[in-house]
Amino acid sequence: MATMPAAVAASVFPSGKPGLNVIAFIDLQGVSRFQWRIVALCFLIVAIDGFDTAAIGLIGPAIRAQWNLTPMQLAPVFGAGLAGLMFGAILFGPLGDRVGRKRMLLACVFAFGTASCLSAFAPTFG
C-alpha cells in the first residue's frame, strides 16, 4: 500500500474543515490482483456471450442449407438473439441495481450457461 502524502491525508475542504481527500487516496492505490481477476472474469463472460452471438452468424448458412430454409425463414433466429440482448439489458440492468449487480450477473451467467447446455438436446427441425 502506498504511503499517503501529508497533503492527501490532511486536506482542507472549502468548508474549512480538515479531512481525508478520498479521491486522491484512491488515485494513489494500485490495482490489486483481485481487481485484475475480476476484470479477467468479466472479459470471459462478455467473450462467451459475444461468441454465442457471433456463432449463429457463422452457422446460419449451414442451417439454411441443411433445413432447406429461405433467408426470410431464418431471419427470426437472428432477430431473436438480438432482441434477447436488448430485453435482457433493459430488464436485468435496473434489476441488478436493486438486488445487487454481482447477484444478477451470477444469475444471468447461470441461466445463460444452462440454456446453452440444454440447447444441445433440442430436437431436430421438422
Describe this entry's structure for a reader:
- The chain has 126 residues and is mainly alpha-helical.
- It has a two-stranded antiparallel sheet.
- Helix 4 packs antiparallel against helix 5.
- The protein is elongated, with a radius of gyration of 24 Å.
- The relative contact order is 0.06.
Task: List its traits.
two-stranded antiparallel ribbon; single chain; 126 residues; mainly alpha
Provide a compact summary of the structure.
By secondary structure, the protein is mainly alpha-helical. It is 75% helix and 3% strand. It has helices at 6-9, 22-28, 33-67, 71-99, 101-119, and strands spanning 11-12, 18-19.
The largest beta-sheet arranges its strands as 1-2
Mean pLDDT value: 83
Q: Beta-strand level of the residues, as a percent range?
A: under 5%
Evaluate the radius of gyration: 24 Å
Helices and strands, in order, run as HEEHHHH
The number of helical elements comes to: 5
The helix/strand class is mainly alpha
Helix content: over 70%
Task: Summarize the main sheet.
Answer: 2 strands, antiparallel
What is the general shape? elongated
- Report how far apart the termini are: 63 Å
Q: Which stretches are low in confidence, meaning pLDDT under 50 for 5 or more residues running?
A: none
Strand runs, count:
2
